[in-house]
Input
Amino acid sequence: MRFRLSKIILLVPLAFLLIFFYIPLISIIREGLWDNGFTLKYLLSILSNSYHRHIIFFTVEQALASTGLTLLLGLPGAYLFARYDFPGKRVIKAFLTVPFVMPSIMVALGFLLLFGKEGFFTRLFGDWGILYSWKAILIAHAFYNFPIVIRMVSSLWQRINPHYEEVAMSLGAKGFTLFRKVTLPMLMPSIFASAMLTFVFCFLSFSIPLILGGYQYATIEVDIFMLIMTLLDFKTGSALAIIQISLSFIFMYIYIKSLDSYSKAEEQRVFREPRKMTLKELMSVKGALILLYSLIVFIFIVSPLLAVVYDSLIYNGHFSLEWYHRVFSARYNPIFGATTLTAIRNSLLFGFGTVVLSTIIALIVAYSLHRWHFRGKNIFDALVMLPLGSSAITLGLGYIKAFHATPLYRTWIIIVLAHTVIAYPFVLRAISAVLRKIKPSLSEAAVSLGATEWKAFLRVELPLAMGGIIVGAIFAFAMSIAELGATYMLYSPEYTTITIAVYRFLGSRQFGSASALSVILMAISGISFMIIERIGEEVW
Output
C-alpha cells in the first residue's frame, strides 16, 4: 500500500514537470531540428555565423570573468563574517544578501543612475567608460552574485576544525603559508560550488547584458530574445536555445556534483565562534585593508541601491514623494497598458501563486528523495533537478511554442506556471537541506508507537522541516516578483508586473517612476531576507 501510494504521489511533480518543463523543452528542440524532416541546418547556420559564434564565446568569457571578480569581492567578506563578530553583523549580512534577490532590471537602473551621462559618479569623477561596455556587465554581475560567495564560503569557514591549523602552526606554518596549505584546501568545496553557481547565473543572465551591455556585448539570452521578439525568427532562435540548453545543463551537472562535496564538508560538527576584533587589529595593516574593502563594497555594492532610493525621492531637483504618488495612482499608464497599482497587484498575486505551487512540488520531491527507496530513484533525481539549468528566456520560448494554441496562452496562469518552474529548484534546495538534518529515527520511533507514515510525517517531520519550507517559500516569492525574461515573453498588458513596468519606464527614460517601483521591490526583498536570516536556514 505504501509503495503504491508513493508511486501515485511521485506522479504529481513528474506530471507537472513533464507538461510545463519537458514538453516546452522538446518543442524548442523540435523547432530547431525539424523542417519537413530532421535537419541540422539551423544549428550549422548558428555555428557558421561569425556574429553568433562571437556571442556564444563572449557569453562564456563574461561568465568566467564575472565569476572571478565575484570571488575577488566575496572571499574577503566571507573571511570577515566567518572569523569576526561585530555590532549589526546579522543586519549587515542580511542587507548584503539583498542584491541577490533584487530584480536584475533594478540593478541595471542603479548602474544607469551612477555611471550614466548624468550619473553621480560621472559628474564627480568624469566618464569612466563603464556604461554600455563589458565592464558594466562584469561589475553588475559581481554586485548581483557576491552574496552567494559570502554565505557559502563563510558557512564552511566557520566549520573548519581549528585543530588542523593549530597542528600546522606547531610545525612552523604561519601567515599565507598556513592559509594556502591548510585552510584553502578545506575551503575549496565551498569556493568551487559558489563559483559554479555564480558562473551559471552569469551565463544565463538577461537583463544586465541587455541594458548595460548593448548590442555589441549581447549574450546568448539577449540574442535569443532579439531573434524571437524582434525578428520573429523562431527557427534560428530555437537552434541557439538548443546550444544554450546543452551548455547550461553541462554547467549545472558540474555544479550539482560540486554540491555533494560542499554538503559533506558542511556536515562537520565543529563550529568556530567568531571573535571580536581588537583595537590593535583595527589600527594595523589588517584594519586598513578591511577599511579599503568596506569602501569598495560600499561603492560597487551599496551605492547602486542608495542611488535608486535617492532618485525616487527627487522631483525637479527637490526632495519630493511625487514619484510615489504617481506609482500609487489609479491612473491608466499607456507606456505598459495598465496602472501601476495593477502591476503591483499582479506581482503579489503571481508571487503567492508561485509560492503555493513550488512549495507543494518541492516538498513532495524532497521527501521522496530523502525518505523513500524505489527503482529508478537516480533517474528521478536527475529529471527533477534539470529545471535548475533552464533559462527564463528559453522557458518563455518553449511556452510560446508549446501553448500558443491552448487556452493557457496569454493568461495569468501560464505566468505563474513559468515562475514556478524557475523558482521550484531553489525551494527544493531549501527543503532538502533541512530534511537532511532530521534523523530518520525520529519518524521510525513514531511509526513504532503506532503512527502511520503520513501521520509521523505531519506530526514529527513537517514541524521540524518548517524552517526550510518557510525559507523556500519566501525565496520563491522573491524570485517571482523579480522575474522579467519569461514574463516579458508571455504577458499581456492586463498582466503587467512590477519588473515589466520598470523596464517600460526605463525604455521611456522615466527614471523617477522606475526608481519608486524598484524601491518597493527592494523593500519586499529586504524584508524577505531579514525573515530568512532570522530563521537561519540556507537556501543555496
